[in-house]
Amino acid sequence: MDVRAPRDEPTALEGAPTVNLTLRIWRQRGPEDRGAMVTYDLPDVSPDMSFLEMLDVLNERLILEGEDPVAFDHDCREGICGACGVVINGQAHGPRDRTTTCQLHMRSFNDGDVIDVEPWRAGAFPVVRDLVVDRSSFDRIIGAGGYISVVTGSAPEAHSTPVPKPVADAAFDNATCIGCGACVAACPNGSSMLFTSAKVTHLNLLPQGAPERETRVRNMVEAMDAEGFGGCTNTGECTVACPKGIPLTSIGNLNREYLRAVTRR
Amino acid sequence: MPETTSLGSGGGSYWTVGDDIVDTAAPDGPIETRWDRRKFAAKLVNPANRRRHTVIVVGTGLAGGAAGATLAEQGYKVIQFCFQDSPRRAHSIAAQGGINAAKNYRNDGDSVYRLFYDTVKGGDFRARESNVYRLAQISTQIIDQCVAQGVPFAREYSGLLDTRSFGGVQVQRTFYARGQTGQQLLIGAYQALSRQIDAGGVEIHPRTEMLDLIVIDGRARGIVARDLVTGKITPYLADAVVLATGGYGNVFFLSTNAKGSNTTATWRAHRRGALFANPCYTQIHPTCIPRSGEYQGKLTLMSESLRNDGRIWVPKQKGDTRSPDQIPEAERDYYLERIYPAFGNLVPRDIASRAAKYQCDDGRGVGPGGLGVYLDFADAIKRMGEDKVREKYGNLFEMYERITGEDPYKVPMRIYPAVHYTMGGLWVDYDLQSSIPGMFVIGEANFSDHGANRLGASALMQGLADGYFVLPPMIGNYIASTKLGSVSLDDPTVTSVVGEVTGRLGRLLEINGDRTPDSFHRELGELIWDECGMGRTEAGLRKALARIPELREEFWRRVKVPGDSGELNQSLEKANRIADFLEFGELLCIDALHRAESCGGHFREESQTPDGEALRDDERFAYAAAWEYTGGAPVLHREPLQFDYVHLAQRNYS
Ligand SMILES: Cc1cc2nc3c(=O)[nH]c(=O)nc-3n(C[C@H](O)[C@H](O)[C@H](O)COP(=O)(O)OP(=O)(O)OC[C@H]3O[C@@H](n4cnc5c(N)ncnc54)[C@H](O)[C@@H]3O)c2cc1C
Ligand code: SF4
Ligand code: FES
User: Fold this and answer.
1) How confident is the model at residue B188 (pLDDT cuts 50, 70, 90)?
2) Is the confidence at residue B18, as pLDDT, over 50?
3) In what helix (H) or strand (E) does residue A202 lie, and over which residues does it extend?
4) What is the pLDDT of residue A214?
5) Distance from the CA of A81 to the center of ligand 3, in angstroms?
6) Overall fold of domain A135-263
7) Which domains does chain B have, with CATH numbers?
8) Which of A108, B133, B323, B393 is found 20 to 30 A from B482 (Cα to Cα)?
9) How wide is the angle at C-alpha B487 spanned by C-alphas B484 and B490, nearest 5°?
10) What is the DSSP letter of A130?
11) How far apart are CA B306 and CA B161, in angstroms?
């Protein structure tokens, strides 16, 4: 049976030493299914493989064995689209700091390791299948106010509003959120405060965002509550899991913006 | 079965020649006013009537996102699709380097005319002048639009926007947001789209894939799509259909495109009558991280902006296995600086890529398999300090370190070319309308603007120009000037397209063979990379054209797709896309075979200058090649290209 194209290349081009792993992966056919952890042995894993390439290799094998491959979300595999994300040994996106699942490489693991792989678990992120969850609640939070209204073509000349570099840089830092949901998965309350605060901070810092500053934060916070995300109790787990390093201070900023908005109502 | 038809196997000829394309809808007269005149001639839809008109937009990248948001804002009813779980994750998100605009904020001699000129020349004289001029004109408005949306572009201490220069040009016209420009621009478009979704102007269908086009009475009237979660197949009807589905780079299997990027929407539309233009114009990006193993699922780009400060070199000696720090200065060959002293490390992408390939073919490559060259920042760190380098490129260096386990502040990066962008795409006229009336194609999915080679930072510009500014008035013109009859879901065409889509998925599941879908994709990709990659020869292309039909036949006999169609089934999604790549790959090679000249990203080994540079043949090939699907040998329609403003000249970067 051909597992791959008929080419006689070694698995790792340099023949780097491989490791043998045991994976315990959450399998769940659909939202109604109860789901369970299933164990797979995976020999000869190259340290240069990414975590998702490792799952690809497992899936190629499962297909040929007549089993359903493990479903997981992914697309860019460059740490920027925010599609990927699984809980690895209890940690959202796994052991490496500021690294998405797709950018995690197997050199972070040792021979003989047992690795638990689970989906994000949060009330507002129902499981679709295996490791795939439904994060559309995030899109609705953005739709509630995470934008600056500009009719296409009506914008003033870009240089008419200079933005001090420190302000632009701080806005940028918050704008780097990839919407992956690791913050929610890591939070014991399933709160989406970090995600929401990143967007509110990005837009509210900028002069362009000022006119809608108050309605934005009010509407986004309301949407967040309506979607069933939990409240924030300052555990700080979110920021530890966040692959883009969105800081806890953004949550502080969200709270201030919200307070300001409701007191001015 | 249509899937196993061998294009052009009849009579030893791979294609036939049909009529030339004479009408491109572009106005003539002075180029500076063509777009204004086109807009003025366009019919308008009364704002109060727009709600009654439905437009389908497939895709939510820069092109689709911008189009959906703008059309809904203007009052049209928009139904929009993407296969990712959120519109924010379209592949545009991954663009790193920047976006061009002729703002001339640096007072360095830039202008709309220069951007136009650079783009026509960079495209190696294979693009339509009218379109390129319009793109350059609109570029400045894009920056205004994005800044107003809150896109956090890099700024100077003055608070004004910073710009940098990008491969192949000598002015600093590239706006950027650290190494994440695509992300920031897409988030801007996504937020505008989200606002319209919330307001009810856009009905959004994420995780839903278009699998076919519905053409009734010669006009595009809808699509058939599959809900990827439930597997349900549904027809959607509209007054016009817009494809914004991105490029086909993944026909090579390994590319810098996102894993899901595919050609299904454009290929299915082609099969329904849309001409496919210049598929052989593919761009190989010089600065990607070399592959590390057979398991490799995709390649990662290192932004070309790195070439502003990094120096590219290989050891002078063949097969030199010393570590880079052991190789003294005198034994290094900074080959781009040596061969192209004027542009040095900033030569256009195709030239930089081929030069790297030659060094490696010649045995001077570094790293695993000798498939890499160094991109060294030691001098830059000495010159401006590590902190400044970190500020400019920090996130790219981090990404490199995560993937390779090596620290580029200490060890030179290793890079190798990889497939990155596709200039070819569905043929469109000046209005961005395909050869099927009512179907418009925008962004990377069309063939317009970049000719045979795209300049860095111009795809984002084109996607947003198309989506925000060009498409909306042209959609209005189409709707206002066309008497559309009503169509219903029980139309026999609708039923039959739904039947075909369902049947095809069923067949894929029934085969139950012994090879995985990916194994076919990988094999197709390797074949096309070898024979239709950086260098192409007639013999190699013929070899590929002999092999692809066999591979396709084998696919339909041996592929194994587990599960069923009424559920989330990622293997089925993949197999269905690969089936289209297996057909499309053949057209790609036919186009490459027919174009017996070198131009831009298409390098025919038979056509080069004595010093190994690409040699165009303007006598025979100054046209866009638009292919018509027949089920057998495709028919070539030529769109002759005229250069009234930028005079035809061989590119020369030395
Ligand atoms: C790594 C990388 C870096 C780049 N950097 C730059 C840069 O710095 N500057 C620059 O100018 N260009 C850059 N480019 C090129 C540029 O990013 C792309 O050309 C551009 O973003 C394409 O945008 P698009 O809107 O046409 O398509 P995409 O962003 O690819 O969007 C395609 C959309 O179509 C949807 N879709 C596709 N098929 C279907 C279907 N059948 N059914 C439903 N939906 C479908 C997808 O879900 C997606 O929403 C880069 C490209 C890559 C790969
Ligand atoms: S805040 Fe961080 S963890 Fe949360 S969605 Fe954004 S990037 Fe992901
Ligand atoms: S796959 Fe895009 S962030 Fe991981």
Assistant:
1) very high
2) yes
3) helix A193-205
4) 98
5) 5
6) Fumarate Reductase Iron-sulfur Protein; Chain B, domain 2 (1.10.1060)
7) 285-419 (3.90.700.10)
8) B133
9) 170
10) T
11) 20
Residue of A nearest to B391 (CA): A169
A115 touches chain B (CB under 8 A): no
Task: Quote the CA–CA distance of B97 and B407 in Å, as a whole number.
Answer: 21
Partners of A63 on chain B (C-beta within 8 Å) are 516-517, 560-562, 571
Mean pLDDT in residue range A178-193: 98
User: Among candidates A70, A123, A119, which has minimal Cα distance to A231?
Assistant: A123
Which residues 523-562 in chain B show a CB within 8 A of chain A?
523, 526, 560-562
State the amino acid at position B470 in one-letter form: V
Residue intervals in chain A for CATH 3.10.20.30: 19-128
* B84·A151 Cβ contact <8 A: no
Name the one residue in this structure whose structure tokens are 């992956």: A180
Point out the residue among B84, B178, B402 whose CB comes nearest to the CB of A99.
Answer: B402
pTM metric for this prediction: 0.96
A42 contact B CB<8A: no
Stretch 466-525 of chain B: residues touching chain A, C-beta under 8 Å:
468-469, 472, 514-520, 522-523
Q: Which residue has the tokens 């605060």?
A: A197
Instruction: Sheet with B16-17: list strands edge to edge.
Output: B16-17, B635-640, B623-628, B276-277, B425-426
Domain A19-128 CATH (choose: 3.40.250.10, 3.40.1160.10, 3.10.20.30, 3.30.43.10): 3.10.20.30
pLDDT value at B2 more than 90: no
**Joined tokens for residue B271:** 């099969």
The reported pLDDT for the residue numbered B349 is 83
Q: Does residue A180's CB lie within 6 angstroms of at least one atom of ligand 2?
A: yes
Give CATH 1.10.1060.10 domain extents, chain A: 135-263
ipTM: 0.95
> What does the pLDDT read at residue A8?
35
Query: For the residues B390-396, what does the mean pLDDT come to?
Result: 85
What is the spatial distance between Cα B66 and Cα A79, in angstroms, rounded to a whole number? Answer: 23
Q: pLDDT, tens digit, for every residue of B605-635? A: 999 988 778 899 999 999 999 999 999 999 9
For residue range B476-513, list pLDDT tens digits in order. 999 999 999 999 999 999 999 999 999 999 999 999 99
Q: A11 CB near a chain B CB, below 8 Å?
A: yes
On the CB side of B207, CA atoms within 13 Å amount to: 20
Structure token digits, residue B602:
């298409």
C-alpha A27/C-alpha B228 separation (Å) is: 18
For a substitution probing ligand 2, which of A242, A248, A249, A251 has the most ligand atoms within 8 Å of its CB? A242
